[in-house]
Specification:
homodimer, alpha+beta, Arc Repressor Mutant, subunit A, Beta-Lactamase, Enolase-like, domain 1, 3 domains, 5-stranded antiparallel beta sheet, 12 helices, elongated, DNA-binding
Chain lengths: ~350, ~350
DNA sequence: TGTTAGCACTCCAACACAATGAGTGCTAAC
DNA sequence: GTTAGCACTCATTGTGTTGGAGTGCTAACA
């Protein structure tokens, strides 16, 4: 059995109709819905074939057909191919400039959720590959130090910590010099235990203080692992818009998964993985294709974004399998673009290459 | 009609039974449940009285009775009075020391949610009344400054920002001195527009740079309003454990409210308000007593916590009206205590004054 | 050979209906 | 004041019953 043009048209019609209604679609509906002008009986024959081929199924005898994951997959692939269409202007995202990266990300998922009516997620950009730009140790009291690390991409990490013995200004100055000269320009990944013990040795008598300080820096790095990836979500309540997800047990599972975030992190990882294998652009996970068991009743559409300065992350839309894939993909593209623009302009200001108003991340 | 001891016992039995089962409770149940040894008929008479008095209602004829808000209220009040009992040791919270306040708060709500099986919330402590301890302006590049503000309670706020014109080290040094001498020791509330324009004037030629810097500080303050209060939640999925909240429409409403956080902020405000009016300890909002319309099917139990150093916030448990109030209150008390301990010990290191009493708790 | 009309069949969804039983209020007896 | 007994109410549950949407199959048609 092979797929001819007519079968494709019918399958498309079935899927499109099901996306709208969420109800199984019957042969009669299609017979009127399409411009094929075929009787329901003919459609029935074709549908029977499509079912045999695995693109659609009947939930039960004497019901219409609904798409299988395989069917959705074919449909989504075809969208991806003809993606040049839909140049229609989208009302742009209107992300307000904020000073804090975190706020900005929260704003983005929020807007995206309200615009798509789906649940949305965004991962905070990873900066493991970014270089240390500046380290500053400041003495607050004789036993309390403030450590500030500025990382490329204008990420600022600070840490206030207490010492077990007094420290004087001069020592702090020496440590500042030592740290900056040894660590500046290295990426967070470069800073490993060996290097740290090296520096500790070099610090000599103040090794224990240095140890504290370096542990702090180590913690900044530690905070940047996949396990405790920062992920923001929005629009969790939107799952109730889709009856197939809204029943108590499924909703509970989904809400937990969204709240826990560890499942979402798997999508971020998977997306990063695939992207590194050359697969670029928007990615779609349909049902069982999901890396997360709990989300097998959903589809997830993801994309990576790039703020520049090595700051990349993943943004995703979570919906029912019958989600409006085109809309989701369109919106994600729009977000990608907006994020690029936002930070494009910031970067210009960052280096004295152009004019602009102040704004930054930190 | 007045409330005698027997009526109280019966009402208590009804409520307790309803808390467990969530089902309307009938006279026969009570007749066996209590140690009063009364027949169901007698109980029926009393229940009829209790209904007339407004403590219980029948969802429909020929159903058992369920407590009204008024009934719950009486019950809760009686718990509060005899709170000395239940000295039974609770497995303590096991909050791991973390460096970041935010992480710690997230951990707390999480543990509390898993222990109570309710939805929980915690507001980040307000530090508007806290004094500026230390301000540091650092020149990263000729047009980029890093501003770090350390506030009492070891709150660190940083902000990286770009200037429209170059700045040299010397100027930065002067600004540092100016800012510290003028702002240190003031609370964030004290720093108003008048003061800021004063300082701008004083800065003379570098007024525009100072303006930028001060705007930054102003923003730290701005971030500390009720409108964008930081609130962390956990266990939103727990609402599905209670059928009376789990149906699609109610669940959606609740999930939204929890996600939006603005409603939760109202509880924080209300709790703060009441506490400032002398009402201390644990507070309980039953149904319509809630300041938030969307939560009238729930009960909310809140308490304020005090980390010392002026860092106070609110922690709350959200559940169905038939929640286990005793358990909720017990857990909140435990959390209060734990939070005090955690920061008590930190403060000990913090100031070399010795083992200070970390603020009292009921 | 592909398309269509017609028909028998299936099965979900909706509805009505009765049976069940938990629970009440009332009354009369203790 | 307490209790047993009884009639009554009503949500819930189960059981048909029906209607309709949809299918598969067959036979007729172009």
């Amino acid at each position: 059995m092979e797929m001819d043009g007519r079968k494709r048209k019918i399958l498309d019609a079935i899927i499109r109709n099901y996306l709208e209604t969420g109800e199984p679609v019957g042969s009669r509906t299609i017979s009127r819905y399409t411009d094929l002008h075929l009787s329901s009986a003919t459609i029935r024959n074709e549908m029977s074939d499509l079912e045999e081929m695995g693109y659609i199924v009947q939930p039960h005898t004497s019901a219409g057909r609904i798409p299988t994951d395989k069917g959705y997959r074919l449909y989504v692939n075809s969208i991806v191919e003809q993606k040049t269409q839909h140049a229609e202007a989208m009302n742009s995202l209107m992300i307000y400039r904020t000073t804090r990266l975190e706020e900005m990300l929260k704003q983005v998922v929020r807007i995206l959720a309200s615009q798509t009516q789906y649940t949305t997620m965004i991962s905070a950009p990873s900066y493991r590959g970014n270089k240390v730009k500046f380290i500053q140790l400041t003495r607050i009291t004789s036993r309390q130090l403030l450590n500030v690390v500025v990382i490329e991409g204008n990420i600022v990490k600070n840490h206030l910590f207490d010492l077990t013995e007094d420290i004087d200004e001069e020592t702090v100055g020496r440590l500042n010099f030592l740290l900056n000269s040894r660590l500046n320009g290295l990426t967070l990944m470069d800073i490993n235990l060996g290097l740290i013990s090296n520096i500790k040795e070099e610090a000599g008598v103040h090794a224990d203080v240095v140890s504290d300080v370096l542990d702090t820096i180590a913690e900044v790095i530690r905070a940047e692992t996949d396990e405790n990836m920062e992920i923001y979500t929005s629009g969790a309540n939107n799952i109730f818009r889709y009856p197939e997800l809204a029943d108590s047990s499924k909703a509970q599972l989904l809400i937990s998964t969204i709240e826990e975030k560890s499942g979402l992190a798997d999508f971020v990882k998977e997306t990063r993985e695939r992207e590194s294998q050359g697969e670029t652009g928007i990615q779609v996970y349909i049902g069982d294709e999901s890396p997360v068991e709990e989300m097998k009743d959903c589809s997830v559409v993801t994309a990576s974004y790039d703020l520049g300065d090595g700051l990349t992350g993943t943004i995703g839309i979570i919906g029912p399998k019958r989600m409006d894939y085109e809309k989701a993909m369109r919106n994600l593209k729009e977000v990608k673009k907006s994020l690029n623009n936002i930070f494009g302009s910031v970067r210009m200001e960052d280096e004295p290459t152009g004019p602009g108003d102040p704004g930054d991340v930190g």
